[in-house]
From TrEMBL:
Gene source species: Leptolinea tardivitalis
SMART domains: AAA (SM00382)
Keyword field contains ATP-binding: yes
InterPro entries, alphabetized: AAA+_ATPase (IPR003593), ABC_transporter-like_ATP-bd (IPR003439), ABC_transporter-like_CS (IPR017871), FeS-cluster_ATPase_SufC (IPR010230), P-loop_NTPase (IPR027417)
Protein name: Cysteine desulfurase
């Protein structure tokens, strides 16, 4: 059983503190949601977990299976089984979804075994077909150029498919604060629900309560001012939907 443990994490961007002592434990097999108002540091957390070089960790640690990730590159983190879906996936001209996925799968195989010669094409096609059927992705999708002219929903579909192919231990999904339509939300949710199993831990980071109408998280965390300030079961999301974040802020300010 692997777990991701974030301990007293302090992160700054250009000398401006953003994360201020964030603690969170995500075990394999659980789905956790992080919710919080805009500008509170949710994407900073996702970027820091990924190992983005602009985000400077000044204190605390990120452990996976008890081992610190802080000195590992984004690729090394990915090879360990941590999957990060990007808020704004880039488009790669001339690279199809299938080629992109095959490259990703081969990079993981190579990291696990330097002598690996890459997945045989027929085996790759077979696995990709199975995953696409499982996720109800149209077969033509594999031949599309990655992110070129993709709708928000199609970008999410590519991400979820990538997740299915790489079979990570921990997946971190950061949702955009704007422009994420209901279709994209549904695709991410159905994908996560389909892939959900005891070997996968998922962290869904979102500005919106409504994604939690589709994904039933085991734990909901509320993030404010660079910290997790409240954690609870799915009921917490309903409270937030009904009453917004004001009560959490008031509770914080009153020190209760
Ligand atoms: P959220 O995802 O919760 O909306 P962000 O992590 O995007 O919050 O942003 C948290 C704070 O960090 C904001 O004040 C934002 O302006 C600042 N910030 C985020 N990214 C950068 C960056 N690359 N450079 C400077 N400031 C940034
Ligand atoms: Mg934001
Ligand atoms: Mg964000």
């Amino acid at each position: 059983m692997s777990e991701l443990v974030i301990k007293n994490l302090h992160v700054q961007i250009e000398n401006k503190p953003i994360l201020k002592g964030l603690n969170l434990t995500l075990p394999q097999g659980e789905v956790h949601a992080i919710m919080g108002p805009n500008g509170t540091g949710k994407s900073t957390l996702a970027n820091t977990l990924m190992g983005h070089p602009s985000y400077q960790v000044t204190e605390g640690d990120i452990l996976f299976d008890g081992k610190s990730l802080l000195n590992l590159s984004p690729a090394e983190r990915s090879h360990l089984g941590i999957f990060l879906a990007f808020q704004y996936p880039v488009s790669i001209p001339g690279v199809t979804v299938a080629n992109f996925l095959r490259t990703a799968v081969n990079a993981h195989r190579k990291a696990a075994n330097p002598d690996d010669k890459g997945i045989p094409i027929l085996e790759f096609r077979k696995i990709m077909k199975e995953k696409m059927e499982m996720l109800k992705v149209d077969s033509a999708f594999a031949g599309r150029y990655l992110n070129e002219g993709f709708s928000g929903g199609e970008k999410k579909r590519a991400e979820v498919l990538q997740m299915a192919m790489l079979q990570p231990s921990i997946a971190i999904l950061d949702e955009t604060d704007s422009g994420l339509d209901i279709d994209a939300l549904r695709i991410v949710s159905e994908g996560v629900n389909t892939l959900r199993n005891k070997e996968l831990g998922v962290l869904v980071i979102t500005h919106y309560q409504r994604i939690l109408n589709y994904i039933q998280p085991d734990i909901v965390h509320v993030m404010m001012d660079g910290r997790i300030v409240e954690s609870g079961g799915p009921d917490l999301a309903l409270d937030l939907e009904e009453h917004g974040y004001t009560w959490v802020r008031e509770k914080l300010e009153n020190g209760t």
